[in-house]
Amino acid sequence: MSGTEDLFVGRADGVVRLRLNRPEVGNALNPGLIAALTREVEEARRSCARLMIVESSGRNFCTGFDLSRLQEETDDTLLARFVRIEYCLQAIKNAPFPTLAIARGRAIGAGADLFCACAIRWILPGSSFVFPGANFGLVLGTSRLAEIVGAATAAEWIMGGATVDAQSALESGLAMKQIGYEDIERAVSSETARACRLDSSTHQSIWMAAASARSVRGETGDGFDMLRLIASASQVGLKERIASYRTASQSIWPVTSP
Description:
Number of strands: 10
Organism: Bradyrhizobium guangzhouense
Structural class: alpha/beta
Protein name: Enoyl-CoA hydratase/isomerase family protein
GO molecular function, one term: lyase activity
InterPro entries: ClpP/crotonase-like_dom_sf, Enoyl-CoA_hydra/iso
Oligomer: single chain
Shape: globular
Low-confidence stretches: none
GO biological process, one term: fatty acid beta-oxidation
């Protein structure tokens, strides 16, 4: 594998396999990891990839933004980070090839949004999801979640601060299937074979046609999502709101996660 210390990258036969590799902090997204993810998505687009897989090292898929150095941030630097992750999530959502997320353990905040941005979503036993951004006034990923599970369910989860367990994720369609840890490589091989069966041009054309049927939001919807995010994150006191929420909910914003 290549990539960076925080993001392992494997490439073979048009399949790009990305592994978040910050297990000591629950694979929380620091600026370097967000930048690396974005670069790999853009490179996969340029190279006409057939499939991109997003997975993780350690016990958790992704526990959201790495805010362990929150004291060094300002409202403006936090806004810039949120904009960059939204840009990355939109690039994944709109990729002209299948994107597969394999979640394990906890997926929190931007980590849950990363899972939602992928078109094919698998979970391992014991996975759970939390969407806490609204607790500090942030609107990030709401439309993508609603597109998957419906507006009412998305609003219920976000406004109620729900922890979505594996069974609820499967029943709602947030997750498409659950696989065992021992079945990961076999399931990935099967998905890879499907992605490589047709010639490249036909594969991409069929995928994009199917994707357009799945989503009626398109670029206009993406633009509104970005505007909503910027408007919510631009409210004065973002850093203070996040700090207050972290203090009240240390289990949601862990500094470390073995």
